[in-house]
Specification:
Radius of gyration: 34 Å
Mean pLDDT: 89
Distance between the termini: 117 Å
Structural class: mainly beta
Strand content: 35-45%
Helix content: under 10%
Number of strands: 37
Oligomer: single chain
Length: about 550
């Protein structure tokens, strides 16, 4: 390396060079550095005593893999196929290979199957490249493979050769696809288990975790409400099968009485029993759950007095407790001091691919003042489209009076009376009849399936109860998570949240009905919350009638 003439080397300096590493580590890994004058006379030297960086072997990415052979379901015994290909030889005494599975996987004390299906195949001239597999007693997700000696100098795995074997492992109970888990493979030699020779990481095969979601209708601390539960199994659950739901500590589940267990689209013979943080849904002898079908039901839940963290879990099993499918990573929900209650969604039509009016009703815990920027956001289940979205795409804004209609519901104030006003047309800040003075869209349908409303204020005289109507287009089938949510914000900070079960859709191609009416919905199309309210009313009427008859007698 030639240094420019006249340079003063009185300070520390550095150089970056590109080198090609050797195929194997040199027996003496020392580097020499010298500074010489133009006549090649040494001025400084390190005497060749700088120890170089340690070389590590690599695995060929194209020849190294881990594949599942038996099952991709969590918590089940499995056989995996490990294939490796080294880019440099592994030779020496006491050769080992360490396979580290993601957290939750478990290798048995003997993880070598009876028929490992080795590659290269063994014969009279080719011996087995691996002789044993055992787990690490301190970390059962680690397996140590023993590579036998083939001569007095030890064993050998040659570079460029594909080596493969089957191994026994139990799949993990969880799988986080947003942070994809990795397997790790190391090689060691000469009884040195601290300094690996080769190393690589591999993405894990995907585990088919049971899809499930839960949310309370009223996510308020120390409050009882209906818990909406949805599940989509990937295996059939036969007669007398069970769905086990476990909540984090502090929750109480109850569903034995009919008003507190709404079957939804579960089979008609399904029953439920619950205690503490545990509930069991039991199928009858003539019922079953079909794989690939979404099921949604509700049961009673009482939230803890203090906010808690942790996952919910769900297990599908036979009457004999044979595991069908499970998950222990169902996300929970944030509990707050205030929440939206009496939230319900009712439609004038439940036909698929049909435009219909919805009536939305809800009760607020909080009061929203004029001095703040208040926004109420209604989010539909996947597939629903608000009709105002087409108007906004065409005109650039939505006229509030045409998109948000009066709720016309007794004891509920029309939300149309408290929506923010558009700027006066005489002001410089005027944009259009759908935009506030500070530039906010009063009705915003720009995001698919989301309706955002700018609210001027609410007051105590209404007891927080409001209603409105809006038009949507039903999707072509029921969504897996058939839940509507309403969230309120003040100055961009979340204040309250509520959820309501959606209505079940009917196939428009096989149903004939009069769609000309936009009047209030019938009992067939109201949400679960409204059906419960109507059910209680029916019970009260029946009780009143009986009392009158007794008095008459």
């Amino acid at each position: 390396i030639n240094v420019s003439s006249g340079e003063t080397l009185s300070k520390a300096f550095s150089l970056i060079l590109t080198v090609s590493n050797p195929v194997k580590s040199p027996s003496v890994n020392l580097w020499r550095t010298m500074l010489v004058d133009p006549d090649r006379v040494p001025l400084y030297t390190n005497d060749g005593n700088w120890g170089g960086f340690q070389l590590r072997g690599a695995f060929s990415s194209s020849g190294t893999s881990i594949k599942s052979l038996v099952t991709n379901f969590p918590s089940e015994a499995n056989v995996i196929r490990l294939s490796i290909q080294l880019t440099s030889d592994l030779s020496g005494a006491s050769l080992k290979m360490r396979v580290v599975a993601p957290s939750g996987f478990v290798f048995g004390s003997d993880c070598f199957p009876e028929h490992p299906n080795l590659e290269p195949a063994t014969n009279l001239t080719v011996s087995a490249w691996v002789s044993a597999c055992a787990h690490n007693t301190l970390s059962t997700n680690e397996a140590v493979l023993t590579i036998p000696d083939i001569s007095t100098s030890g064993g050998l795995l040659s570079r460029g050769v594909t080596y493969a074997t089957n191994l026994i492992v139990t799949n993990a109970g969880n799988f986080n696809s947003s942070n994809w888990p990795l397997w790790q493979i190391y090689t060691f030699k000469n009884n040195d288990n601290s300094n690996y020779v080769h190393y690589t990481t591999l993405q894990s095969y995907k585990l088919e975790v049971l899809w499930a979601k839960v949310t309370p209708e009223v996510p308020r601390l120390s409050t009882s409400s209906q818990l909406i539960v949805s599940v989509k199994p990937l295996r059939d659950l036969g007669p007398y099968g069970q769905v086990l739901l476990t909540a984090p500590s502090g929750y109480t589940l109850f569903c034995r009485l009919r008003p507190f267990f709404e079957r939804g689209n579960l089979p008609g013979g399904a029953s439920c029993s619950g205690a503490n943080n545990f509930a069991i849904v039991q199928l009858s002898g003539s019922d079953s759950l079909s794989r690939g079908t979404s099921y949604q039901f509700t049961l009673r839940v009482t939230a803890p007095a203090a906010s808690t963290t942790g996952f919910w879990s769900m297990t599908l099993q036979t009457q004999e407790r044979v595991l069908i499918q499970e998950t222990s990573q169902v996300d929970g929900h944030t509990l707050t001091e205030t929440a939206i209650s009496r939230f319900a969604v009712a439609a004038t039509s439940s036909l698929t691919n049909t435009e219909t009016y919805l009536r939305i009703q809800f009760k607020l815990d909080s009061v929203y003042g004029r001095a703040s920027a208040n926004r109420f956001v209604l989010t539909a289940p996947e597939g629903y489209t608000f009709s105002c979205a087409a108007t906004q795409a065409r005109n650039g804004y939505v006229l509030p009076s045409s998109a948000i209609l009066e709720g016309s519901l007794d004891e509920f104030t029309d939300l149309t009376t408290v929506l923010e006003y558009a700027a006066d047309s005489a002001l410089d800040s005027y944009v259009n009849d759908g935009t506030t003075e500070d530039g906010r869209a009063i009705v915003d349908c720009s995001v698919e399936g989301v309706l955002s409303l700018v609210v001027d204020y609410t007051d105590l005289t209404t007891l927080g109860r409001y209603a409105f109507r809006v038009q949507v287009v039903n999707p072509d089938s029921d969504p897996s998570w058939n839940v509507w949510t309403l969230t309120t914000y003040t100055d961009s900070k979340l204040v309250e949240h509520g959820a309501a079960s959606g209505y079940t859709l009917e196939d428009s191609t096989s149903t004939v009905t009069d769609e000309s009416s936009s009047e209030l919905p019938t009992i067939a199309t109201v949400s679960r919350a409204q059906r419960i309210h109507l059910g209680y009313l029916a019970v009260l009427l029946a009780a009143g009638t009986s009392l009158l008859l007794c008095l008459h007698r």
